[in-house]
Design brief:
By secondary structure, this protein is mainly beta. The chain contains one helix and 13 strands, in the order βββββββαββββββ. The strands form five sheets. It has a four-stranded antiparallel β-sheet. The longest helix has 8 residues.
């Protein structure tokens, strides 16, 4: 489960990217990307599932603001994914995963003014007191490693 904690959620969770790897010594390969509030999209040659995917649950508010200039600038597909986001709790359950070790990445972005919050993955804090930055700032966080034993994160 990924969660953010803040008194006000101007920052939004955009996407999770999972890569399967047998051990930390092996090269990771793309497993699944999720565009949590947008359509399926092709990013870095990998097809990401869209908001209608059966492979996650998220009851947070949907938010899309395609007009915000992103810093740093990025390609159109990634920009669309980043700006199609979820907020207000940012609790995501990833489902239908094989029981193996995954590398998890999280895209975050700020639409207006900075917030500070913690990020937890599978019940463990992976980033404490993350500062989201100024309007338009986005970042890919991770990698974090999770051993899946019950088909979910």
């Amino acid at each position: 489960m990924v969660s953010t904690v803040a008194t006000r959620f101007a920052l939004v969770l955009a996407t999770l990217s999972l890569s399967s790897t047998a051990s930390s010594d092996d090269a990771a390969s793309f497993f699944r990307g999720l565009n949590l509030n947008g359509p399926a999209v092709l990013i870095d040659g990998n097809l990401w599932e869209g908001k209608d995917s059966e492979n996650y649950e998220c009851k947070d508010k949907a938010f899309e603001q395609q007009g915000v200039a992103l810093v740093p600038a990025t390609d159109p597909q990634r920009a669309q994914m980043i700006r199609s986001s979820r907020w207000n709790g940012n609790r995501v359950l990833l489902k239908n995963l094989p029981n193996e070790t995954f590398t998890v990445f999280l895209y975050v972005w700020e639409d207006n003014r900075g917030e500070t919050f913690d990020i937890s993955l599978d019940g463990k804090t992976v980033v404490a007191q993350f500062s989201s930055g100024a309007a338009g700032h986005w970042q890919r966080l991770g990698p974090w490693y999770v051993d899946v034993t019950k088909g979910t994160i």
